[in-house]
Design brief:
Largest sheet: 8 strands, parallel
Number of strands: 26
Helix content: 10-25%
Strand content: 15-25%
Distance between the termini: 47 Å
Shape: globular
Length: about 625
């Protein structure tokens, strides 16, 4: 997510700034929804936009939106499709239509006939499911994920920079809160760059419509569940983007928010019912204390405020305990996968959602798409707390047992930052890396966790480590050799830097992605000096990792750090790689006798990034602030 997760001074300042741009109606009034004017609804809309025959779950809930539609009777006649009934809502502008799509139903146009104050016939499309095996591939530890912000990466189509009718209808690259013009075509134009780097999967921050008047570029306050933001392209463009990525050998991770929506979402401007979002007598913000989710001693007040409080004044908290809302969200997730063939979901603010809904949602996705990759943001403290939100071997708490395959591994991110910024101690400094993985016994499969150095909410890694290039290489060596799915934030490979105070400073434009840029880091000629050296280092390791299964599917054996040196091995039948990290500023002589269980049978090794040969594996002298990635040889 974008705004507040930890109550730091910077986060509170940013939230205060955003409050000034809240909509006039931030939470529902006490008057019934039906008494409000329906002027927001001018044309009929049906969600999901269309659906598919042959789904494993034959039930389909349609949310129909049109002035006065709630009083209508509905009829249909379509082979294989049954009308199970309708449900009017508090707001007369909505009607729920429940269908069963039988196994014999064929693709075509289903004519929904509405009889009420007005007569309306709506042709609803049923499509065939795709059988293309290249779709919905999932993401695994064999992948290398590249996280980028579409608005800030590259502008491939200046014609969509300004879209008439949007609430922020201008481009201002000199403003960190304004749109800058990046889009889907800009990303696609640089697939070759990503492939050269060794990337196998692209994770754009949300591409769905975010028609908010302020800071809409980040995408985490969605205003339309079923459409791509027009400043990135059309929804059909996005489906083609996924197909193009697959043809280029790249997977696509779709970033989404379950917990909340933007206050300019049509479902908030003209809400179906008051209980579509969580209501409070006065605006109430979440306490952001994830411990309230599973604290066995928790007060009802704290748990309710955590899960039902709004994330921000412009982000209404969706009430997933409402069965209609739950079904709406689940169908939306299924729709995007089936329509586009995307490979994985990244779930923003995962712990903030309703516990029963999370289990229902996870089961529904896994049933329809067994290969779909899913990982959630769990910005929490402590390995136990983090493991609780992934598939784990821990006991349920208050009926919740996570079925989320993996999480963003903040514990290892905290650890690598401390390893490179603090002196080694019994449990401090580089020892944190050891203890971050020691808790892997709690996960069903820790290889499904996403490891990272930084992201769009955090200070950039190169700045955190004091712009020390030796430490930079250590961090990248760890990222690409430890267990899990490595994720790189755009620009890290060319030493982009800054601190997240405010967040916009770590979301700057990628050099070369926009007309008029003085530097172009997309080309080898433009990557001179340290930026070129950094790119080459990442490229070498990432592409080596691709072809050496030990680094993504192999077992990890780690040894307790000693004198600031942390050593671990990735090993499988396909080979063994030793990683040795010296966090001290001084050279260290390492007696490898205690590594015998992993060194047995090997006589030499070659350091992957430099090509240097290690002829003696009994004693090693490793320079200060250095990481070696050594392929062992017999």
């Amino acid at each position: 997510m974008i705004f507040i997760r930890s109550l730091t001074a910077a986060a509170l300042i940013l939230a205060a700034n955003l409050n000034a741009f809240a909509t006039p109606r931030l939470f529902a009034a006490n008057a019934p929804v039906a008494s409000r004017p329906a002027k927001a609804a001018l044309v009929t809309r049906v969600d999901p936009t269309f659906w598919f025959v042959g789904m494993k779950n034959p039930k389909l809930q349609l949310l129909v939106h049109s002035p006065g539609i709630g009083a209508s009777k509905v009829a249909l006649a379509y082979p294989g499709v049954t009308l199970d009934g309708t449900q009017p809502l508090e707001n007369p502008n909505y009607l729920v239509v429940n269908l069963t799509i039988g196994p014999d139903a064929k693709p075509g146009l289903l004519k929904l006939q509405f009889q009420g104050a007005k007569k309306l016939v709506y042709s609803y499309e049923l499509r065939a499911r795709s059988t293309d095996p290249s779709r919905v591939q999932g993401v695994t530890a064999a992948d290398f994920v590249y996280l980028l912000m579409p608005d800030r990466f590259a502008n491939g189509d200046p014609k969509n920079d300004v879209v008439k009718g949007t609430r922020a209808p201008r481009v201002a690259r000199d403003s960190m809160y304004a749109r800058h013009g990046g889009d889907l075509k800009g990303i696609e134009q640089h697939f070759d760059y990503l492939k050269e780097l060794g990337v196998t999967a692209i994770w754009p921050t949300p591409v769905v419509a975010n028609d908010m008047p302020k800071a809409s570029y980040h995408g985490y306050a969605l205003t339309d569940y079923y459409n791509v933001d027009p400043r990135y392209g059309t929804t059909a463009d996005y489906a083609r983007f996924v197909q193009s990525a697959h043809k280029a050998g790249l997977k696509v991770v779709h970033d989404v928010v379950l917990n909340h929506m933007g206050s300019y979402n049509y479902l908030h401007l003209d809400p179906p019912a008051q209980d579509w979002v969580h209501q409070w007598p006065a605006f109430t913000r979440s306490n952001y204390r994830d411990a309230a989710f599973n604290d066995v001693h928790v007060s009802k007040h704290d748990r309710e405020q955590f899960g039902s409080g709004w994330f921000d004044t412009t982000m209404p908290d969706v009430n997933q305990s409402n069965p209609l809302v739950a079904t709406y969200l689940i169908q939306n997730f299924i729709w995007w996968v089936e329509y586009t063939g995307l490979d994985a979901y990244r779930i923003d603010t995962y712990p903030y959602s309703d516990r029963k809904f999370l289990m229902q949602w996870g089961e529904a996705l896994a049933t329809e798409f067994p290969r779909l990759g899913v990982f959630g943001e769990a910005w929490v403290q402590g390995t136990g707390q983090q493991a609780f939100f992934a598939k784990n071997i821990l006991p349920p708490v208050d009926g919740f047992k996570s079925n989320l395959p993996g999480v963003t591994d903040f514990q290892s991110q905290y650890a690598i930052n401390e390893a490179l910024t603090k002196d080694a101690g019994w449990t401090d400094g580089i020892a944190k890396l050891y203890y971050a993985l020691q808790g892997d016994w709690m996960y069903e499969d820790p290889l499904r966790n996403v490891v990272f150095l930084d992201n769009h909410d955090l200070s950039r890694f190169y700045s955190v480590i004091g712009e020390d290039f030796a430490k930079y290489k250590m961090g990248l060596a760890w990222l690409l050799t430890t267990r899990g799915i490595p994720q790189l934030y755009y620009g890290t490979e060319v030493l982009m830097k800054n601190f997240s105070a405010p967040d916009g400073l770590v979301r700057e434009d990628f050099p070369g992605g926009f007309v008029g840029d003085k530097k172009n880091y997309f080309t080898a000629a433009g990557r001179t000096g340290p930026a070129g050296e950094a790119f080459a280092y990442v490229k070498t390791l990432a592409n080596y990792r691709k072809t050496h299964p030990a680094l993504h599917s192999g077992q990890l054996t780690q040894f307790i750090p000693a004198e600031g040196v942390y050593t671990y091995f990735r090993h499988s039948d396909a080979g063994t790689v030793m990683v040795m990290m010296n966090s001290s500023k001084d050279e260290k002589t390492v007696d490898t006798g205690r590594f015998a269980e992993r060194l047995a049978g090997f006589s030499s090794g070659q350091e992957v990034t430099s090509g240097a040969v290690l002829a003696d594996l009994k004693t090693m002298k490793i320079p200060g602030r250095t990481a070696w990635v050594v392929e062992l040889r017999k």
